[in-house]
């Protein structure tokens, strides 16, 4: 990440889970969040690199940051209603 770290309103750790579980858990978590909130998702499934941007696109949420670390993927999603 560059610059100031993002502050998330919630975190969802899907470490060790594989498709479709991370997306199903995100769907449930997003439903409990307010418009404008930022959700930080941590994942280890490489399929999330494809699935999470598509999730955001189809449901109208904004993927504001995506980082790949040596052992995980981090996504910051702004919830839009």
From TrEMBL:
<dbReference type="InterPro" id="IPR036868">
    <property type="entry name" value="TusA-like_sf"/>
</dbReference>
<protein>
    <submittedName>
        <fullName>Sulfurtransferase TusA</fullName>
        <ecNumber>2.8.1.-</ecNumber>
    </submittedName>
</protein>
<comment type="similarity">
    <text>Belongs to the sulfur carrier protein TusA family.</text>
</comment>
<feature type="domain" description="UPF0033">
    <location>
        <begin position="12"/>
        <end position="36"/>
    </location>
</feature>
<dbReference type="InterPro" id="IPR001455">
    <property type="entry name" value="TusA-like"/>
</dbReference>
<keyword id="KW-0808">Transferase</keyword>
<dbReference type="GO" id="GO:0016740">
    <property type="term" value="F:transferase activity"/>
</dbReference>
<dbReference type="Pfam" id="PF01206">
    <property type="entry name" value="TusA"/>
</dbReference>
